[in-house]
Structure formats: C-alpha cells, structure tokens
Design goal:
By secondary structure, this protein is mostly helical. The chain has one domain (about 20-100). About 70% of the residues lie in helices and about 0% in strands. The chain is built from five helices and no strands. The protein has helices at about 5-10, 20-50, 55-75, 85-90, 95-100. Helix 2 (about 20-50) packs antiparallel against helix 3 and helix 3 (about 55-75) crosses helix 5. The longest helix has 30 residues, at about 20-50. It starts with 6 loop residues before the first helix and ends with a helix.
Length: about 100
C-alpha cells in the first residue's frame, strides 16, 4: 500500500524538494487521524461481533458510521482503494451493504 498526499498539499510545494515542516506536520496529523479512525472501526466491529441479537441493529449502525468515517479519512489521505482494509478489519458484508459499497 502506498501513501500519496492529497493534491492540495503537494501542489503547494515543488515536487522535487522534500516537504517543509508544515507539510510534514499536516501529513503526521492526517496519519494520526487515520489511525484513530481505524481504532474506532476495530472497537465498533468488536462490539458488533459480541452483541446479542437484540442489540445487533444498534451496533450495526455504529459500525457502519465508523467504517464510513474511516473510508472518508483514507480518501483524504489519497488512499482510494478500500479492499485491503475491508480484508484487514474483516468488515462484514452487512456493514458494507449499509454503506452502499456492495
């Protein structure tokens, strides 16, 4: 998996020069936000997997919201393909259906 900064960041600097301190800080914040979103996905999927059947719709909605936020954060980081995280986190088909991804 490769990292490609958004065009809004890379267009500000010459692509032949290394990123300046501000660009590095922005990229670090983007990576940290992506990590936090991934942790939220893990937490909500764990709750979904252990929820009793009566509480499943509530946890399914929370998991779908967390996955949606995670996908948006990935796209802001320039990562457009979500196949790897779907496999990595084991995102159930029921969650993806709620997102309209299937």
């Amino acid at each position: 998996m490769s990292f490609r900064p958004p065009q809004s960041i890379t267009s500000r600097s010459d692509r032949n020069n290394p990123p300046n301190a501000i660009d590095m800080e922005i990229m670090a914040e983007m990576a940290a936000a992506l990590g936090r979103a991934g942790q939220k996905v893990e937490q909500t999927l764990e709750k979904l997997n252990t929820a009793p059947e009566s509480e499943r719709p509530l946890h399914l909605k929370a998991a779908a919201q967390a996955v949606h936020a995670y996908f948006i954060q990935r796209e802001l980081c320039g990562l457009r393909n979500h196949d790897d995280p779907i496999r990595h986190y084991g995102i159930p088909r029921a969650v993806l259906v709620r997102l309209g991804a299937v």
